[in-house]
Amino acid sequence: MTLIIERKGDVALVTIDNPPVNALSQALRQDLWDAAESLDADPLVGAVVLICEGRTFIAGADVIEFGKPPMPPHLPDLVARIEMATKPWTAAIHGSALGGGLEVALGCRFRVAVPKASIGLPEVRLGIVPGAGGTVRLPRLVGPVLAAEMVTTGTPVTAQKARSQGLIDAIIEGDLEKGAIDFARAALDQSLPLPLSQRGVPPVDAAFWETTSKTVASRAKGEDAPLRALGCVRKATEADFETAMAFERQTFLELRGSPQAAALRHVFFAERAALRPPELAGVEPRSIRSAAVIGGGTMGAGIAATLREAGLPVTLVERDEPAVDRGLSNLRSIFESAVKRGKISPETAAERLSGIVGTTDYSLLARIDVVIEAVFEDVDVKREVFGKLSAVCRPDAVLATNTSYLDPQQIAAHIKCPERFIGLHFFSPAHVMKLLEIVPTAKTAPATLATGFALARMLSKIPVRAGICDGFIGNRILKVTRAQAERLLLAGATPQAVDQAMRSFGLPMGPFEAQDLGGLDIAAFQRKAARARGETPFAPIAERLCALERFGQKSGGGWFDYAKGDRTPKQSEVVADIIAGEARETPQRAWDQAGIIDCVVLPMVNEASKILNEKVALRAEDIDLVEIHGYGFPRWRGGLMHYAEGRGIADIVASLEELAAEGLAEPPSDLLCRCAKSGQFVFTD
Ligand code: 3HC
Ligand code: NAI
Question: Distance between CA 54 and CA 95 in Å, rounded?
Answer without folding.
Answer: 9
